[in-house]
Structures
1.
Amino acid sequence: MPTLTLPEGVHVELPEGEPVGAALPKGTIAARVDGHLRDLSFVPGDDAQVEPIAPHSDEGLHLLRHSTAHVLAQAVCDLYPGARYAIGPAVADGFYYDFDLPEPVHAADLAKIDRRMRQIVKRNQRFVREDVPRDEALERLHDQPFKIEIIEGIGSDADETRDEVTSGETVSLYSNDGWTDLCMGPHVPHTGMLGAFKLTNVAGAYWRGDEKNPQLTRVYGTAWATKDDLDAYLHRLEEAERRDHRTVGADLDLFSFPEEIGSGLAVFHPKGGLVRRLMEDYSRRRHEEAGYDFVYTPHITKSDLFEISGHLSWFADGMFPPMELDGGTQYYLKPMNCPMHILIYKSRTRSYRELPMRLFEFGTVYRYELSGVVHGLTRVRGLTMDDAHIFTTKEQVGEELGSVLTFVLDLLRDYGLDDFYMELSTRPEGKAVGTEEEWDEATETLRQAAETMDVPLVMDPGGGAFYGPKISVRARDAIGRTWQMSTIQVDFQLPQRFEMEYSGDDNARHRPVMIHRALFGSVERFFGVLTEHYAGAFPLWLSPEQLRFVPVADRHVEHCEALAARAKDAGLRAFVDDSKESVGKKIRAAQLAKAPYTLVVGDQELESDAYTVRDRAGTESGGVSFGRIVDALVAEDSSRALEQTDFGSA
RNA sequence: GCCGGCGUGGCGCAGUCCGGUAGCGCAACCGACUUGUAAUCGGUAGGUCGUCGGUUCGAAUCCGACCGCCGGCUCCA
């Protein structure tokens, strides 16, 4: 009977034929053996280097979630005889399992499946691994066509799952209580180690992610190391729901999507329009200071333009269908601004002295997004890009990219986002124009610029646009979600397609390089993200309303109006709530409207000219003069502060 | 586009399974109260039940198509 020595000095005896995991110290699941995540029933020998995996670690959670997925499949097979199971991996925050079922599963059925899963958990069923020849596996899973398809694919050149555990000669099966699944493992030792899980929803998903394949039923769940972790996660979900820009947008009267206009086409109401204008105005100001020139271009164009650019051959499906004139000429709504900006460049011959040329436009474009993907303001069919195209010489690209990145991060911070990472997306195989050398060069230029920033960089292989690689800036919001914000792309292709040129100092003609960049991406989407980031409580400089007056009685309205006029003279957005409601009700209305500051004005204030400031948190500060309030708010507004002013307690 | 769910006054919902011509709360409007930091009281008005078609003596309710929304999948220049 060999003995295994774990790093923390724990000795484990290996009973013949028993999984080691069961004998591991409490809180330890599976292990890392010689650098590989392993099922301890297959530890190669007692001289192996074994590190226990903590349940809270990424690997620990992965094991937990994948094992819970097995239990889910087991429960579904019990409850739906004839069910065929496909794949069930761990994913971020949880797991899913895909099934082909004899009858549809509805959200209401999840409770039933959950109960069955908990029975299985209670029985402490061992996860037992067997490595069997392929023929035997095919026989044992003969009524599971998806598993057969996977087994037949194992070991082939296209198979990426192959490693030294799944050799191709044999395949590994994991069984508990007679239910068997094809699986690389590893798993937790037994089902009793699971429990902090919850089935969350049921949805359709294509087999192997291909829309040409049949659609399966996917059951999603979340699983955590402890009940507290699970509760914390569910709480985060609730918090995200509370911040949902679609709800907040309706509650605060910011925007709507009238059905009569069409799917994915937003209208901004006065308050939302004001916030949007404040966002745009600041962006314009900064772009002007950074040397951008503002241009305007039409919304429709003849098909020629997008034939030259290549958009029509790659993205015709994503464009609204053309309008055809009598002569047969086709006009399209523009899905991109770049070709229009290129034509501005091409309107006359250009000199190297004019470069870099930076053309900026809040350009409204239309994209025919599939009906199922339209989502609030974050995925729409009509959107306004804060789009700029920078034309540079080849020599200038590196430096320009560096300053663009600095500019972008700086500006995003002003809007209140400061936790970033960058993603470098490379050539999409089979969906790209230009030579591999050009792509390598453009990618390398981007990488070098990105590496000068003090922000982490991750790779996104194959994620680039058809004309060039891109850097995406991703930002984490107030509750830790990441959003793709700005994109910066280097493009050698469109300058070629449009035969762009400039005269160099050598009196020869040269081809400029083009940088595409959008900071908000889409103004609508950025608006939605900020709404969720702030949960509707925008910082003062972006708030549609800054100071609200609540008169105690009708006789105080006049004084409030006078104060509001003073505030407006100082450049503040002030509002008097003269509705005939109780003070309590008006305070409540101000709070629900996320008014940054509220002043209740009654007889006391008329006499003393000292006010009690109520902020969004409901904190009251008394005895503040109106002059001081105005000065403080003007300062908070102009500094674009993210925190509210502290007036101190009275 | 695909799978599943859903669509009832401005908003949130009940009624739909078991057809018999709509109800609640908030908001709006009117009146009383003139109010001190998160909801004063009373009253009034407002809906061809997403749209079109079908079944039926009769449809919010059953069937079909379309439009739109929600959760995923696929997609995202």
Note: The first strand of chain A starts at residue 3 and ends at 5.
2.
Amino acid sequence: MNNTDIARILHRLATMLEIEAANPFRVRAYREAARVLDSLTEPVASLVEEAGRLEKLPGIGKDLAAKIRDIVRTGTTQVYEEMKARVPIEVAALTALQNMGPKRVKTLLDRGIRNLEELEQAARAGQLAALPGFGEVTQMKIIQAIESARRESGRTRLSEAWPVAHAIADRVRTVEGVTQVEIAGSFRRRKETIGDLDILACGGAPDAVMEAFTTHYEVAEIKARGASKSSLQLASGLQVDLRLVPPESFGAAMLYFTGSKQHNIELRRIALDKGWSLNEYGLTEKDRQVAGRTEEEVFRALGMEWIPPELREAQGEIRLAQEGRLPRLIELGDLRADLHIHTDRTDGRESLETMVRALRDKGYAYCAITDHSKSLTMAFGFDTERVRQSVQEIAAVREAVPGIEVLHGLEVDILADGALDLDEEGLALLDWVIVSLHSRLKQPREEMTARVLKALAHPAVHVMGHPTARMIGSREPVELDMEAVLDQAARHGAMMEINAQPHRIDLNDLNARMAKERGIKMVIDTDSHRLRELDYMQYGVFAARRAGLTKDDVLNTLPYDAFRAALAERRSRSAPS
DNA sequence: GCCGTTTTCGGCCCGACTGTTTTCAGTCG
């Protein structure tokens, strides 16, 4: 039972309580607890062992702590079992539908409608429209929501939303009188996936702005259109909201619509303590506006530094901002190298020379070419003989492409038993060794953990590539005791990669936070297999920023000589005694 | 259900839009 599983139960409990019209603040307490557990960087199961640790978490008191202990130990807790009996309904699936909240679900429950199938049947039979709180329109919307829930998995990868978000923002920007357009929401917080897009605009006639917004060629359906807010759905299924706000409120609105929700709640609490009120229109004292034109203004008035959007997750950033101790987050321009690159020698599309030229032209001072090792037979992976040959190839490309240092690397498979897929002779020929999991990903947790621990203990290893091997939306992370892995990496001076492929983002922000806590250095790499993937670097930087990483946490921000010195130092430290 | 150098009780963030109402509840963010 991992943190997400426990959070899911608490979340479901909250919804079931809501259906039963329980005290809304009690409902909120369960939701808040779920959120806190889900964003924790250590396993709840380990907190349970020590008395009082759970109760120290924000929003978790004696009562919830006891329930969480139950869930960790037995997989459930009494109130959850009771609730499941009283609310025998597919809560999550039903409330996930647009326009379906606790009240309507309660109405369904009273009519014996318990799941999506029964709901769809009733809707198509026209039986829903007569229910209290429903109607013809709602009935139709429910049918559509069920159909679209079947089509979509729900969230969109940031990289997929990136071009369309900017295209729509640019279109609104062209409207006469519009002075500012910004994309807010989880997009601005650079989450790896987003649920919808929130765009803010300022200036211009409402009708003209909304017209430009709702007529973008990708629009499939206009869901709402008002003077200050419109909502639409794109052909891809992505929902986009646009809000038109007055200039004196733009900063407050940016703050509000960037979120996270929990971050905003904490800010409002601070405003209340000062006798003020904070909403999307501004920070006000009675009727007097205290701040609101810019975010900086609002943060300053609240007595803190401006907080980068990536950190606004209610993870302690507000305290840091009040104390003036926010980290100076890493930026794309800090990176001096891309250290995970494939070529057509294995499964990449481009020649070695083309890739190295492109890397140099991107302005990198150095790079590492890291094709696959032999166990990836479908990628024509390298054996020792091929690595020997590669030494010559790398020497040739260094000659052919001046202006960038090229490390001779390899992405070596971690075999099922934790051995490396290259012998000592081959490893000794390399400047840079990434080890990665590519096969046998279904191993049980114990086996997988032992496998990785063994690989990380090998003195030739520099970094672990895409450590959990997950693919967002298509493959779950491997079962791995990440704490044990990070402890091992710290012990042996191994690094962890933040793989910037937008479907990997691996390490993710939470794991990167855990790595930082242990003083582990990270590298951010694109794992490029073709030229355009070199531009993925920004997505890795986003994850690093969300984890609160600075330039100092990431080794490929170092100048080349300092980088080589750091590698040499690490190797002497981990040399067998 | 949580929380508290103002409180162990009485607070707990707030507004827009829609559809179903007949003045507003439900949902969403």
Note: The radius of gyration of chain A is 26 Å.
